[in-house]
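User: Sequence in, structure out. Go.
Assistant: Echoing your sequence, followed by the structure tokens.
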Amino acid sequence: MKKMILSATVTALLSTSAAFAQDVVRLGTEGAYPPYNFINDAGEVDGFERELGDELCTRAELTCEWVTNDWDSIIPNLVSGNYDVIIAGMSITAERDEVIDFSDPYTQPDPSAFLAAMEGVDLESGVVAAQTGTIQASHVASTGATLLEFATPDETISAVKNGEADAVLADKAFLLPIADADAELNIVGEDLLLGGGIGLGVRESDAKLKDTLSAAIQSMKDDGSLNALIEKWLPDSATF
């Protein structure tokens, strides 16, 4: 039965990728949100999504290149045609889905966590930093806390360290290595499950490309290679 499922997935990949085999598909990422995506010492995009994106392009028989873009304009620049796919730790939400389309998710909803300089900070009515345009920023805005938004994730951490914010809310996979490396910062409070998992963002007019990439994601789920990548880069995240 498993062989039959894999064969069907391969057939779907071959049939849907034909229209893109000769074109370059540009993958847009932030390059500033480890372990999902970051720029390594060689100046290249690296991380979980670099490995994932390269493998998806191989399976879909697409020629791909990587483009970096600031987070706060990552959706507008997709829509305007500066690249073809967003692969940048972007959670699937109804609000975003009104503007762009999403592939099938390549992660489960990942825990969000609070990072603070001390235990006992007021997370309900204090000042909480978050990156602009994230599901974490939307969550803080819906609570009694004061939202302090920043363009980059590094700025949110700096706001906590310099006392500008009581805490920062972000993906736990991003915050844990920071807490482990800095004795003055700690994960505090309860974890939160926000969003519908992470997916690839495409223009609403690119339905065939979306289907091609979703088929490639499914093939990685079927053979276990997606779970292997999740366990390598996001060891505290749920697998499929």
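User: And one key feature?
Assistant: The chain has nine helices and 13 strands.
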